[in-house]
Amino acid sequence: MGSPELLDRLRQHKSLGAAPNEELAWLVAHGTRRSFQAGEVTTGKLQPEEWLHIALTGHVAIHVDRGTGSRKIIEWRGGDVFGLMPYSRGGAPPGDTIVEEPTETLAIHRELLPAMIRECPGITARLVHAMLDRARHFTSSDLHDEKLFSLGKFAAGLAHELNNPASAAARSSQLLVNGLAAAEQAARSLAAAGLSAAQLAAIDAVRELCQMESTPLPRSPLERADREDALASWLAAHRVDDAVAPSLAETVVTPVALESLAVALPPDALDAGLRWIAAGRLVRALASEIETSASRIHELVAAVKGFTYMDHLPAPEAVDLRRGIMDTIAVLSGKARAKSVEIRADLAPDLAKRLAYGDVSYSGFLDIGRCPRTTPGSRCA
Q: Which of 70, 147, 290, 380 has an alpha carbon 20 to 30 Å from 242's alpha carbon atom?
């Protein structure tokens, strides 16, 4: 390409075409025409940049891998400028500069930049503006990636926290169906036994005993296993299905109480009565577990809504600091447990509310009493 043709193309260049003609002529006289093929790397990651490229045609992009795979963070086409810029303090790109399609540039070597700054002030001013736009783009991209990374970690932690109670509720719901079926079958057997009022009263006495809350200290796994084995042995000795032993072992019922029931009931009715009592105990335990799991999910969702100030306008409002701190602890409790850390908050019950931006988009609680800009929509720096 001859100099006149190249000069004409520079006059039509989107970024530099409005520069004085003598400055464009200086670029033509001192620049080097360079051509790149698709897939070629013009400058590798963290390698010193040696050239200022004035893109005439083509498509070039910087690809960065921040742990989630390579992706474009900025790209240039014909009419843009890329590479080394005058006055730039950054000497190396954050990723590989890869040619997306055949590209032609007019390149100015690093050694010529001082002379270009002196001889071409108009072009230099335009290049400085392009450099500032590029710096803002890189900063915005880094901030965007940081927010996405934080959001991903937050979402993963919340999903883990919600999964535990949700799984417990689903498991208990499945077992509840079987428990209800067992209770109905045992109830039909009891009805067919034709028991007297005294015998039914004996069954009710044991059932109420099994419904009592256990007040002693929690048993160790070994103690629970010994108690279950003792009840299973008693049940087997009285020809009762020992499958009910685990349910009875979680209650305060004793072999002495069961012995009084065995005296009052015939063998068939004893088996049906204990199966009915155990099934009722299991159903109540499963229902309680479902309620606890659902309450935990509700608490987590409420904590997240409070933590993120969902459905709140970005305007100053009376912020309950105590509630905000407790919501934050609830949301981040999974991280604390992962590191075997217990968090306790000792807060005054009458902690005064403060007029502040509660929205997390304002980086948490910002006391607008310390902020010079307190109009709606403004934020502290």
A: 290
